[in-house]
């Protein structure tokens, strides 16, 4: 595959960045045969660069399997990266040794999608929420107990819930427990991996409001991973659109939703229904043909070209640069060159 | 007065909790009683036994139990081919059989679960090496291993326990390894990693309680198998010398089962009784460990 000698990336970096991600890659090996030889690679995250500013919410959207969850997990080093670097408060996360990484865990936390799988069924809520404190040796036993109760109340549960087990709670309540656990060590960054997509719509808004309140109160920075565009629109300051392991567009929320530049973003946004039937009837939906290609064998050049309405010969030859086209609006598309 | 009151108020909820659990789990309680009965017999064997279990009385061979024609109160459960008292043998035999059964299974369970967790959690080369060892152990007939080890260590109760522990762990580690590999991808394990929990605590605090159920069930049943396996060894003359065990009684009694059924059947029943008690107890332990069934 012909790779351009130098990928042109105007790196989206600035002074207030809490996190800078540069050329992050995560390939999973496909093994097969008698000797478990590596037959190929699934390029789950393929050369992704972005930044998250202190105190903001960066939405990361894309369809299932595009690598957004992997992106979040590699960022936290729950998965080992294949290549690239992540700079968190001036420290290179991917080069950290065990002890430093453990200290870093206090500053970066994650809330998972599935509230049923994310809590150990054999630990009480108090144990679950208190574990981060225990592991990092925060406070005495009684101080921790107090902190646990305080955390539970912060997320809208009651102090007495700490002696119960996860199965005694509803999905929304469980998600609150997950948030309390993530909050225990006063982190700076929280990766929210589709935190509401497993919940009922009415509960979704409660949890979203909670997350917003917490962000205000504890000046948290969020990486909000989701596939639900209206949720992302509600909560994000900036939005990044991902397709097949790569970022195709990154811009402030209003810019992206009002004026999407990449053909994939345009198609994605046209799928959001509008509450007014008059307008909805008159809108043109851009329907993408075909399926997402396999990430183990992505198309050459621009990954989106096989489904793009505007595909040109150039798209197959070279990967479009992820470039700032003014006002911090990053797009990877040859149409704009 | 004051202290008495608080003490009582502390004790009472404890007992009422017990009572509640007993009510909730009649099977578990039955198991507990059965197992305790065997344990009491084992501990108090010298007082419970009516005869010296090893004392040969050639004039008194093949006496049937008291409830059958020809039985006498002198030998409540009859005598064997050498005139030894069956009841006394059962009482003393419970000591070794329990020791061998419970300790071998206990040790092999601990070894197997730990190695299974390590193999499943770390994967890669560690997993490959451990699982190949399991394969090798599985492919060698265990009786050969047993005989070799006993030849080296000499036949004794300790040897038997060591030998069984070293050969029986493989099944548990196989099961636990598989379940660990599944469990380690579940979000709560990832959450623990994200918090900075070390590997050891993740394995034993987060994964183990969620993966030992099937091994625990297997372990309770294995007690019976080990008790019987010991009898096979005794039969070959590789068991503990000069000692009575239930397995040995069954093994010798089998020859005479057509004429003197009690020699084989009674120790067999004792084994079945003990194992059933342990299985019930295992059920109960599993229920206690599961918060969903524990209730409040």
Q: What is the tally of helical segments of chain B?
A: 13
The end-to-end span of chain B amounts to 31 Å
- Any low-confidence stretches of chain A, pLDDT <50, length ≥5? 1-10
CATH superfamily of chain B: MetI-like
Could you estimate the helical fraction of the residues of chain A in percent? 25-40%
**Overall 3D geometry of chain A?**
globular
The chain pair forming the largest interface, with residue counts per chain, is: A-B, 30 and 21 residues
**Share of residues in strands of chain A:** 15-25%
Strand order of the biggest β-sheet of chain A: 6-7-8-3-9-10-12-11
Describe this structure in words.
The complex is a heterodimer of chains A (337) and B (296). By secondary structure, chain A is α/β, with parallel strands linked by helices. Chain A has eleven helices and twelve strands. The two termini of chain A are 22 Å apart. Residues 1-10 of chain A have low confidence and may be disordered. Chain B is 75% helix and 0% strand. Chain B contains 13 helices and no strands. In chain B, helix 2 crosses helix 12 (262-289), helix 7 (157-183) runs antiparallel to helix 10 and helix 10 packs across helix 11 (246-253). Chain B is flat and about 75 Å long. Chain B starts with a helix and ends with a helix. The model of chain B has no long low-confidence stretch (mean pLDDT 84). The A-B interface holds A 73, 76, 78, 101-102, 105-106, 108-110, 112-114, 117-124, 131-132, 135-136, 165, 167, 178, 181, 185 and B 186-188, 190-198, 201, 205-206, 209-210, 289-292.
């Amino acid at each position: 595959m012909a790779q351009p000698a130098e990928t042109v990336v105007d790196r989206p970096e600035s002074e207030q960045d809490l996190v800078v991600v540069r050329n992050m890659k995560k390939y999973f090996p496909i093994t097969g045969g008698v000797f478990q030889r590596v037959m190929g690679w699934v390029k789950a995250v393929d050369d992704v660069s972005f930044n998250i500013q202190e105190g903001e919410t960066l939405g990361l959207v894309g369809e299932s399997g595009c690598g957004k969850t992997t992106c979040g997990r590699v960022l936290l080093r729950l998965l080992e990266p294949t290549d690239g670097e992540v700079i968190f408060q001036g420290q290179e996360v991917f080069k950290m040794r065990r002890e430093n990484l453990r200290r870093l865990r206090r500053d970066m936390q994650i809330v998972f999608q599935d509230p049923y799988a994310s809590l150990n069924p054999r630990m009480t809520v108090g144990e679950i929420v208190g574990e981060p404190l225990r592991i990092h040796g925060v406070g005495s036993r009684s101080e921790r107990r107090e902190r646990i109760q305080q955390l539970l109340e912060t997320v809208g549960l009651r102090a007495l819930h700490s002696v119960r087990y996860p199965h005694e709670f509803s999905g929304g309540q469980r998600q609150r427990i997950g948030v309390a656990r993530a909050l225990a060590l006063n982190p700076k960054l929280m990766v929210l991996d589709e935190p509401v997509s497993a919940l009922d719509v009415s509960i979704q808004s409660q949890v979203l409001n909670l997350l917003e309140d917490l962000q205000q109160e504890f000046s948290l920075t969020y990486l909000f991973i989701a596939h639900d565009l209206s949720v992302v629109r509600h909560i994000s300051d900036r939005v990044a659109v991902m397709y097949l392991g790569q970022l195709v567009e990154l811009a402030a929320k209003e810019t992206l939703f009002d004026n999407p530049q990449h053909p994939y973003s345009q198609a994605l946004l046209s799928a959001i229904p509008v509450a007014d039937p008059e307008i909805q009837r008159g809108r043109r939906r851009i329907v993408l043909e075909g399926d997402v290609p396999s990430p183990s064998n992505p198309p050459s050049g621009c990954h989106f070209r096989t489904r793009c309405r505007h595909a040109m010969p150039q798209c197959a030859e070279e990967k479009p640069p992820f470039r700032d086209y003014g006002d911090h609006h990053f797009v990877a598309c040859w149409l704009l060159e | 007065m004051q202290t008495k009151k608080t003490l009582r108020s502390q004790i009472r909820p404890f007992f009422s909790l017990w009572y509640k659990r007993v009510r909730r789990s009649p099977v578990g309680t039955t198991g507990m009683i059965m197992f305790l009965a065997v344990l009491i017999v084992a501990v108090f064997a010298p007082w419970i036994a009516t005869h010296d279990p090893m004392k040969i009385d050639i004039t008194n061979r093949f006496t049937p139990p008291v409830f059958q024609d020809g039985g006498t109160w002198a030998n409540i459960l009859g005598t064997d081919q050498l005139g030894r008292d069956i009841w006394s043998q059962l009482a003393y035999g419970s000591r070794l059989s329990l020791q061998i059964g419970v300790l071998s299974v206990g040790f092999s369970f601990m070894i197997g679960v730990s190695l299974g967790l390590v193999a499943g959690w770390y994967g890669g080369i560690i997993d490959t090496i451990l699982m190949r060892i399991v394969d090798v152990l599985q492919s060698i007939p265990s009786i050969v291993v047993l005989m070799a080890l006993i030849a080296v260590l000499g036949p004794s109760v300790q040897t038997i326990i060591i030998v069984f522990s070293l050969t029986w762990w493989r099944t548990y580690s196989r099961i636990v390894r598989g379940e660990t590999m599944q469990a380690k991808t579940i979000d709560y394990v990832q959450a623990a990693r994200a918090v900075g929990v070390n590997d050891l605590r993740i394995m034993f605090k987060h994964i183990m309680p969620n993966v030992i159920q099937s091994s625990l069930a297997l372990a309770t049943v294995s007690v019976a198998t080990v008790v019987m396996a010991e009898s096979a060894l005794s039969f070959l003359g590789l068991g503990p010398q000069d000692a009575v065990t239930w397995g040995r009684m069954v093994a010798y009694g089998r020859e005479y089962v057509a004429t003197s059924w009690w020699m084989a059947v009674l120790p067999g029943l004792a084994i079945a009784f003990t194992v059933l008690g342990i299985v019930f107890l295992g059920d109960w332990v599993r229920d206690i460990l599961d918060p969903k069934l524990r209730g409040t």
